[in-house]
Structures are given as C-alpha cells and as structure tokens.
C-alpha cells in the first residue's frame, strides 16, 4: 500500500488525532499531503480539510489567516489571542475537520493558534524532524523514504521525456541525487539537451559535492541545486532567481517586485522601458519554473520558491559577487559588524527586536524594508551612506511620509521616476 493510502486509512480511525509525516527536505512531503487532501475530497471523511504552511519561522497570525481563508471567514479581532478565540469557536462548530500543517520545525502552541482539542478536529503535520513529530504528540508517524535507484532513474527519464543521448552518464548523474525528487528534477532539467561535456562537468561537480553548510539539508540536494543554478543560461536568469530570496519562506512573491527591482538595478539588456523589463521578467520566470527553480504562486502575477531552493539560493546570494543580506526569519542570526560590501539588503522582521540603525553601506543598490515602523529620522540616518542606492522599497512600513532626505534622488535609469520606482508603501 502506498504512503498516501496508508495515511488516508489512518485518518479514518476515530482514535487517531494527530499524524506526522516526516522526511528530508525535497523528499516529497508537501506533494504527498496535497495528494492526500485530493484523495480525502472524494472520500467524504471530513467536512472540511484546511492547510497552512508553518515554515521555519512560524508566524501565528499567518497560520490563523490561512486557516480562516480556507474556511471563508475573516477576523474582526486585531490581536492574536482574539483571533485564536474566534478560530477556536469556528473550528468547534465543524464536526469533522482536518488541519494540515506543512513544514513544522518547532513545537507549536495549538491553543495560541486556536486549534481545539476536540475529537473531530484532526491534525496532519509534516516535518523534516522526527523529534518534532513526536514532541507534538503524533500518534502515528510516517517516514517518507528517498526514492530507490530504480525509482530515481524512472523519474529522471520522465522529466527529460525523450530518449537520453548519454544514458550511462545520466544514470551516474541520477545516482548522485541521493533519491531526492527535488535534486533529480532540477538536475534533469539543467542537463536536458546539453552536450556530453556539460554532463561530464555536472557529474564531476555532483561527485565532489562540498558540504553545503546548511545543517538541515542533504549535501547532495545542495549541490544539485547549485549545479542547476550554475547551468542557467544567462546572468539575467540568475539575478531574477536571487531576487526571489529577498522574501520570506513560502511567500507569494509579486512578479512586479522583480520587475521593479531588476529594472531599477539595470539588470536587463536591451530594455528601454519598464514594459519591456516586465516582459523580460515574465519570460525569465517562465524559464526558471520550467527548471523547477520556481513554483506557481497564488495567481498568474505571483510565484513561489521551494524552501530548499531558497535556502541554497540565499547561500549563493550571500557570497561574492552578489553580497545580499537577508533577514526575514524569526531565527536569530545576529547582525554583521560591517556592512560595507553589501549590495542588497532585505529586512522583514518577524519578532526581530532590534534592527541596526545607521548602516554604513556605500555599495548598497537595493534596500527592501517591510512591515516595520521607522521614524523619518532613523530612516534618514540609515540611508545616509547609501550613495549607490538604486531601489528603495518600503512595503507596509509605517512612520514615514516621504523619502529620506539623505538619499537625495535615487540613482538608476535616467528615465525613471524615482518615487514611482522606489516606494510602494501603502501608508504613503
Ligand atoms: N514521488 C514523486 N515523484 C515525482 N516528483 C516528486 C515526487 N515527490 C515530490 N516530487 C517533486 O519534488 C519536489 C519536492 O517535493 P516536495 O513535496 O516539495 O518536498 P518536501 O515538501 O518534502 O520538501 C516538488 O517539485 C515535487 O513536485
Ligand atoms: Mg515541503
């Protein structure tokens, strides 16, 4: 019996309240729960099935909103505890409901979210960490195994979709993917239609995979995604992908942001207007999606990045020559002492206490600030040394009614209206 069938069977058991699905990043947990949700829809085991993505930096409000959206109601309450009470009440009204919590990294406070403990309310969670599944009180835990070499090979061939020119080489490349679908997908797409030299080179890169320095990730996955990134056809594709790192995990990234950021920084060749830049970005996004480096977002105008791809891309973006500083996670990573080499900074605080003021960033070209209050004075100080700044994005930032005077006029393509380019702040 497949895992999907087994989990579905266990969910029918009245005694079971919580089930965990665990496995390595990129092994197929999210895909599996989506499949289970589809299966359940036909079986009428639950009156409602809702799904929320928890991710590395759990944001209770986001989880509450996602569940409410799926149940088609809106909160009038402004506080977390108020929303928790409301959600609790709403969930108690439903006789049989399944709440799927995807990508749980730490123990969650169900009461704080508003998830009740009545028998008809079941929880299915996924995590990379077995301990988390246990700690949350899962009565049954399913571990998703990596693909066997045969399954891996079948998937590789399916992705390429036509007879392979170098089947032996392709088999060896597949074996380097550690049975993880995400690695197989990205590598297969990066190499299809490529000459033998490119295959040889990729095999060598995968075999000598240096540890990816992300402890929660399989090194093979890291090098597979790096391998796919390295083989993107243009710097424009690479830049477009790296811009997607500026947003939090599991974020629906408005493609328009990529347009403005890329255009503002002059990333695109032969583009004379923002319309042309927009066309370019949509075609770059399309290419990245076909390589499995980006995923569909909630609409045609949004895209998403798989959490694993994002982790690798952040590592790449942090290094030379890109030099991004990204702080979108609650996880305390601390602050660097020196800022003078950064070209791009994104600060989206979720429970971050202090944001450094007075950053000395002479090379900074792009500053994205989101969801925080800044005084005009602190913005002025913060932007003082930013002589190269081309794009300033203040998204849902309060406390500011005009561009920081220390900036003067932003640099950038000369036919750009700076304010239009730079500020998309609902408060202005
Ligand atoms: N059994 C499978 N066969 C083919 N592709 C798969 C399979 N499982 C997952 N994938 C693909 O692999 C990628 C990673 O899967 P995902 O479910 O997001 O992994 P996880 O949630 O464990 O990180 C996705 O693009 C998905 O479409
Ligand atoms: Mg997932």
TrEMBL record:
<dbReference type="GO" id="GO:0043531">
    <property type="term" value="F:ADP binding"/>
</dbReference>
<dbReference type="GO" id="GO:0006952">
    <property type="term" value="P:defense response"/>
</dbReference>
<keyword id="KW-0547">Nucleotide-binding</keyword>
<dbReference type="InterPro" id="IPR002182">
    <property type="entry name" value="NB-ARC"/>
</dbReference>
<keyword id="KW-0067">ATP-binding</keyword>
<dbReference type="Pfam" id="PF00931">
    <property type="entry name" value="NB-ARC"/>
</dbReference>
<dbReference type="InterPro" id="IPR042197">
    <property type="entry name" value="Apaf_helical"/>
</dbReference>
<protein>
    <recommendedName>
        <fullName>NB-ARC domain-containing protein</fullName>
    </recommendedName>
</protein>
<dbReference type="InterPro" id="IPR050905">
    <property type="entry name" value="Plant_NBS-LRR"/>
</dbReference>
<keyword id="KW-0433">Leucine-rich repeat</keyword>
<dbReference type="InterPro" id="IPR036388">
    <property type="entry name" value="WH-like_DNA-bd_sf"/>
</dbReference>
<feature type="domain" description="NB-ARC">
    <location>
        <begin position="2"/>
        <end position="161"/>
    </location>
</feature>
<keyword id="KW-0677">Repeat</keyword>
<dbReference type="InterPro" id="IPR027417">
    <property type="entry name" value="P-loop_NTPase"/>
</dbReference>
<dbReference type="GO" id="GO:0005524">
    <property type="term" value="F:ATP binding"/>
</dbReference>
<keyword id="KW-0611">Plant defense</keyword>
